[in-house]
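Suppose you are handed a protein chain with no further information: no name, no annotation, nothing but its sequence. What can you learn? This example shows the usual starting point.
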Amino acid sequence: MTLAAVLPRFLQVGFHPQHDRPQGQAAAAALPERRTMLRHAIVTLENRRLQVRVLRGWVWITRDGCPADMVLGAGDDFDQQPGARVLVQALEEAELLIAGAGAQAHNA
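A reasonable first move is to predict its three-dimensional structure. Written in structure tokens, the prediction is:
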């Protein structure tokens, strides 16, 4: 079963990225990205090393192939290692800081 099959009603909900970073791939990879997510919004993280810090609100994180999901609140961090798709869902309006920048919206 895929993650998309588990959460089909939430996949159409959007998010509001805040791009406070210089243009260009090298600059984007070095600076953190702030991202505000509406309640139930879902972000798919790139399959590479990233760190996510919850600045405000609560999020649910699930990884393909990992039976243990996580719920993180303000001040909590998540270190993503390459190898599995990671979905972050806002349980309420939330703000994230993604180091390494590279989250993509999952709107399929």
